[in-house]
Amino acid sequence: xxxxxxxxxxxxxxxxxxxxxxxxxxxxxxxxxxxxxxxxxxxxxxxxxxxxxxxxxxxxxxxxxxxxxxxxxxxxxxxxxxxxxxxxxxxxxxxxxxxxxxxxxxxxxxxxxxxxxxxxxxxxxxxxxxxxxxxxxxxxxxxxxxxxxxxxxxxxxxxxxxxxxxxxxxxxxxxxxxxxxxxxxx
Length: 186
What we know:
By secondary structure, the protein is mostly helical. It contains six helices and no strands.
């Protein structure tokens, strides 16, 4: 399971890089975007885990189509993220606007987290799958928020030029991965 948590940190690093490519965004805006992305990923991952579990054990497993488990997870994640994006159109605020425009990124996060979750937790029940999905997506969201906050603090003159920016972010990601690995061993 610790490898899965390290994967969540790696996914957070890739997502941070995607969010950071918007040059006009300041640190507060990036932190809000990271919070929106993390929250939406938790919501969609929970929906994906529940729906995939029901479809797998209710439809695919009785038909002997167990090999279609991972593609089912990807299709379910994209369907849940698209539906969440459509529901967000009726909402107001930064979260609704963010999810409406970036639902493919949310879907990809939930699909990757869900597909990896199927590989590390076979045979768990419905509640176990939901708890695992929540834990993994919450680890992703916290990693993304941590990396965003750390990046805002690493652009200071106190750091040497060679460490500022992305190198400091990679060091922070390594420390977060080690911390999550230590917690997984408890």
